[in-house]
Every structure is written in C-alpha cells, then in structure tokens.
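Please produce the structure of this protein holding iron/sulfur cluster.
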Amino acid sequence: MTLAAAAQLEKTPLETYVPPAKPSLIGLSRAELAERLGHIGVAPAQRKMRAQQLWNWMYLRGARDFSEMTNVSKEMRAQLGEHFTVDRPEVVAEQISNDGTRKWLLRLPSGDDVQKAHEVECVYIPETDRGTLCVSSQVGCTLNCSFCHTGTQRLVRNLTAGEIIGQVMVARDRLNDWVDRETPNGNRLVTNIVMMGMGEPLYNFEAVRDALLIVTDNEGIGISRRRVTLSTSGVVPNIIRTGEEIGVMLAISLHAVRDELRDELVPLNRKYPLKELLQACRDYPGASNARRITFEYVMLKGVNDSLDDARRLVQLLKGIPAKINLIPFNPWPGSAYECSDWDQIEKFSEYIFNAGYSSPVRTPRGRDILAACGQLKSETEKLSVRERDALRAMAMTD
Ligand code: SF4
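Below is the modeled complex.
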C-alpha cells in the first residue's frame, strides 16, 4: 500500500497529552504509584504498603480526595495533596434517555488551559440483569468507517490510561456505585464494560491495556475479564496481544462479508483484509464456546443485508467460536445509509440462528439523546455556553 493510501485509512493525532501541573494518580499501576511515592520522599520500605493503601482508596472505594483516606497519616495526606490529585474527568453535561440510558459529556483534565481541554462521551446502559458502560479510547477516531458518526471527526489525541479508567470512575461516582455505598438492590450497577465508545482501542493499545488491567483487578474495580469486551475494527497485529496481555472478550466490527464492500464500510480492511482478520480470530488466545468472539454487523438497507450476505457470513465464521450481534443502523445527520427494514433484519437473523449461531438484534438504546451506537459525537459542542452551563448545573444537582 502506498503512503498516500495509508494516510486515507488512518489519521494522525493532532495533539499529545499535556498533564496538569498537579497530576492525577488515577490510571497508575501499583508499581507506578510506588514510584511516584518515591518521588515525594516516601521511604523505600514503606512504598509498597502505601501504594496498596492508595490503590484501595482510589479503585475500591472511589475516594475523590486524599482527605477521605483515613488510614493514611495526616502528614502523608497533606504531602500527597501538595503534589497530586485523584481527579477524574469532569462531568460537563449529563443526559438521561427515556429508557434510562445515561450519557455523560466529560472534560478531560489537560494542562491548565481550559480552552484546550478535550471532551469525550461515555454511555451507561442499564438492563435487567446488568449495567453496561460504553467507554471511549480516543478523542475522535483514527479511522474513517463510512457508517459511523465518530469517524467523521478528526483524531485529536489518544486518551491516557487514567482518562480511560476515569470514565469508569465517573460512572461509579454518578451512580453512587462504589463498594461501600448503598445501591438499590445491593448489587453493583456498572457490571460490564465495552470498549466501543469513541476511537479504535487497538490504536491506543498500551493505555487501553493498562486501564483494563486496573478495571479487572479484583482488589479494585473488580469487573471480571469475561464482562469486559474490547471491540476493534480489525487492527490485526494487536488482536493476539489483546488476548495475551489483557485477556478480555473480543468483538470485531465486521459489517461486511466481502472485501470490496468492507473496504468501503471499514476502510482499514484495505490494510488488513478479511482473510487475515478472521485468521487472527481463529488464533485468539482463550476463545472457546464458553468465550465466543462477537461479530458486530450493522444492518444497512440494500447494502449488506441480503440472505446471500447471511449465507456468506456463516461460511466465513466456520471454525470460530462466534456469536453475531446485529445492529440496526442508527441514522445521523448527513449519513449516506438507511437502516434495513425490520422484516429483513428478522430474516437475516433467522438464517444465522438456523445455522447454529446466536444472533441477537441489538435493541437501539438512548436514541433520543444520540447515545446509540455510531452516534457518539460531541453534539453538545453546538450548544451555547448558557445551555451547557444549564446542563452542567443539572448534572451537579440531581
Ligand atoms: S466504527 Fe469505531 S473505528 Fe470506525 S470510525 Fe467509528 S469509532 Fe472509529
């Protein structure tokens, strides 16, 4: 592939992360916490124990300030407060859909210039047996998938591990969902994480990995690896690494069963065509009938929704422990596609089901707040300052 062709597939970040003068400890591993403690003069013999204390306060109990850390000495708390924070992204706006879906617009702490602060969205989807949080990995996206609203944005920058885990922490804060706080039925509300928000997670591999290792650590946020799903458009070289280094469930944004069409819908296919992508799935560490790979397939009217496509899909997935998630297309202003007719979605689903695959049709959630799949874009950017302040005030008071 020529450089020019590659440039069309992948955008280059416009900016790099600038940490605030007083950095947040959120997103650091135990070893990194111990190292930071060393920087502020904590004796080597104490660092491991202190790092574990911080870990528990931050990731198990969700402390928002060092003053809450009552088993840490007063002097140490003051010392920590002088150099660090436990800040997470700031909630700029909260919208609650008729169906209970919540979307937060989050401002990322970045440098000291508020004008330059970036924003991402994060969506919580409650269901009867679970609560799923959809998390972003980039501001904007590296890729240009033609059916995706986020793909129309520039790639501003990769998120840090702290900004990724910070989204989970904000959700727990807003839902009052930390370990020693009461929840309506005594269960945690955020039970599942999907890396399906803005961005291609495998183009920000290290930060996503570090954040997910904290999410799944059972002495902290403690969400099982089986309840964490990373969705990729098919960055083949990092698929195996995901299995080996993170060990979470894998989802593939497939959307087409022939290279010509997938080249158009998911242009990254020109770099990593179907054959290579499916081989990486066959080789995915830990995939089994109990841990199936999810293939996401957006239903586009007259584009990829024929029964011939369904037949080819079944053929392609032969030998892969798979389930197929059919996603009715969520139109957005300016999109070139329409959602398949319901009738056709049902026929497609039935064909796949009869071939032995689970093929649930994803119920559209949060459509009224543009929170549904592929619609994540900071449309609040268009709001006036006054409207945004009003939304922010709402977010702070309820
Ligand atoms: S579908 Fe995912 S990878 Fe493709 S443009 Fe949208 S956010 Fe990026």
